[in-house]
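Write out the 3D structure for:
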Amino acid sequence: MTHVFVTPGQDWPSDLIIAALKKAGFSVPVLEAELGIGAGSLRNAFYRHVPRYEHLIAQKIGLSPDLIWPSRYGSDNRQSA
């Protein structure tokens, strides 16, 4: 059923990440306040590799970052956090 919303092996769309955060009871502004970062900063993780933000988002959703952003954590391009 997850194939309806997520194409296996592809990064999640930002709208889906936001929806998953909302379902888990969080929002981007709340997480930004928790990290003490400026408004809009957390959204950088939607478009570029920012391990600190990716790990926080994944933790709040209840998944590992490699499931949300497989292109960033694949075996060929694994980067240390």
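Residues 77-81 have pLDDT under 50 and may be disordered.
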